[in-house]
Amino acid sequence: ELMTGYTMLRNGGVGNGGQPWVLRWSSRIRLTWLSFTLFVILVFFPLIAHYYLTTIDDADDAGKRIFGPRTGNELCEVKHVQDLCRIRESVSEELLQLEAKRQELNSEIAKLNLKIEACKKSIENAKQDLLQLKNVISQTEHSYKELMAQNQPKLSLPIRLLPDKDDVTFPLPKSNRNCRLHNCFDYSRCPLTSGFPVYVYNSDDYPFGSSLDPLIKQAFEATVRTNVYVTENANIACVYIILVGEMQEPVMPKPTELEQQLHSLPYWRTDGHNHLIINLSRKSETQNFIYNISTGRAMIAQSTFYDVQYRPGFDIVVSPLVHAMSEPNFLEIPPQVPVKRKYLFSFQGEKIESLRSSLQEVRSFEEEIEGNAPADYDDRIITTLKAVQDSKLDFVLVEFTCKNQPKVSLPTEWALCGERDDRLELLKLSTFALIITPGDTRLVISAGCAMRLFEALEVGAIPVVLGEQVQLPYNDVIQWNEAALIIPKPRITEVHFLLRSISDNDLLAMRRQGRFLWETYFSTSDNVFSTVLAIIRTRIQIPAAPIREETAVEIPHRSGKAAGTDPNMADNGDLDLGPVETEPPYASPKYLRNFTLTAMDIYRNWNSAPGPFHLFPYTPFDPVLPSEAKFLGSGTGFRPIGGGAGGSGKEFQAALGGNIPREQFTVVMLTYEREEVLMNSLERLNGLPYLNKVVVVWNSPKLPSEDLLWPDIGVPIMV
């Protein structure tokens, strides 16, 4: 092109196309310059940029090569490269640590695998041991059942066989005085499974019925109608009962007439075996008209006996029937505290035979030792008691002459003075009540002494019986030394010392026991009749009939929020909180002692002190035996529930003698109109071990408040 341009210029600037050569030359120069500029930019600009990038941070360093090669260490000194290097080093260290941990975990996994294998082997061994133990337990249970079957075979109730003949085959005793249960009672009519049926004659069907005291007869008939043992079928009866007293004096039949009427009873069977003749006394002057009557093998229950007439273990000394047709007014009964009252002891009575000798000078003790003892000790008793009263050492009240006409009494018996209300007012002021037995020692008990005993127990005066030969009511089944003092008459000079030496605790215990005896066996006609039947039933070892079940009316109530746990129960530690009832409740074992209880627990009587959980006073001769007893709670008191052998968990098993650790228990609370106290008491039961349910007996005609919210304690609350 240059050559062409030069040629064109030589030729005058005209090319083939006729254009001037100058124009063509200028255009070529511009293209050349443009290409050169572009070449410079493309070559030098990257070099400058490279230099700038490599020397921007070290512009002041002298001698630094700009375009020379750089080593790897020099390049790492660059900031962003250094950061990357640091990150790489950190990641490398973490990777090394993770690798070390991985190796440790692998080693632990290997160890755990070894342990798992060892545990699997242990489980297999334990399964084998458990299987062996199950086999041993099964064999032991089988052996136990075999032993139980050998020692306690299952027996069905025997078929009751009644005698075919009315005549007894066992010989009569030499005299009626020798009658006892083994020779005057027909056990064949009273099997253990008979239920103790009792047939009661209707006194109105016989002539002597018109002579009976109307109140006594009405009370007796009312009691008979409600008694569980009374039957109308005389053919299956175990005992036959006839009421013959108390009789009214003007129309009383002659002894021979009454004897003939008794022997003519349809089931008398020639000798009256298995018969009980009841002679109740409502007054202190009741006469012993049965003394001159031949009663054969019949048992007698009355309040007056002579020693030649009374047959221990066969006849029954009963208490007088004071409250014949009316319940005693318990509101008028004085409280048991204070222990000591105004008078240390009191006595009011009159005996005509002793009045003349009481005015004479009593002979000395030395004269009596020489053989000149008085006919009876009443003279000394009168003199000694008067001396105690005159000494003013203690407040005592003794009166041996009645202000009014004394009650009619038996010979040598101390007659009662005044009316019953007057005597009770004096006894309410007396700590002790003296009871002087009849001077005739052949009279072992009289209606007058029984009446004094009844009144003393009723108002809380502790009886002091002078005369150890006395036979107190129900004496063969009641321990009278727990409620009364029985002192021989020759110790009359020591009576004052003995009474002053008794502590307040003993006085209160005797008064409480006396109150219990009076309420249980003396107070009403039902108690007297039930006690008489219970004594006979216990003597012949027949268990009591079960108590009739009555459906209670449940009061609907609303439950509120869940109650908190008592702090005392918060930390149970290793305490077993009882079974989780995921299935029906565990049944109690059967009570196997129903037919042996009356034979093994005779003469057992207690009255425990009050406490959070105390048994109520009970004797086995109470018509209610332990196997039929119900829970009777009074604030904090409980009575055992029957139907099982007992036991409510380990703690209750150890404390109360239970035998089934799995059993639970029920709390019964008796209350009324104390809603706040009741709610607090219920809340404290939350979390109580072995608690099955709570039964609240609302003892008031006024129902609980409808808006009352009952606590939720985790178990049912029945009201």
CATH superfamily of one domain: Glycogen Phosphorylase B
Compute the separation of the termini in Å. 130 Å
- The helical percent reads 25-40%
Number of helices: 19
Query: Which fold name fills CATH's third level, the topology of one domain?
Result: Rossmann fold
- Name of the level-1 CATH class of one domain: Alpha Beta
Descriptive tags:
endoplasmic reticulum, alpha/beta, 5-stranded parallel sheet, 719 residues, Exostosin-like 3, Rossmann fold, 36% helix, 17 strands, elongated
Report on the structure:
With 719 residues, this protein is of the alpha/beta class. Among the domains are: 176-317, no CATH class; 343-355 and 375-523, Glycogen Phosphorylase B (Rossmann fold); 549-559 and 584-623 and 661-718, no CATH class; 625-660, no CATH class. Helices cover 36% and strands 11% of the residues. It has 19 helices and 17 strands. The strands form 5 sheets. Strands 1-2-3-4-6 form a 5-stranded parallel sheet, covered by helices on one side. A 5-stranded parallel sheet has the order 8-7-9-11-12, sandwiched between helices. It is elongated, with a radius of gyration of 55 Å. The relative contact order is 0.06. Mean pLDDT is 79; it is low at 1-9, 12-17, 354-375 and 602-648. InterPro entries: Exostosin, Exostosin_GT47, GT64_dom, Nucleotide-diphossugar_trans. One of its GO terms (molecular function) is glycosyltransferase activity. Belongs to the glycosyltransferase 47 family. It is found in: Endoplasmic reticulum membrane.
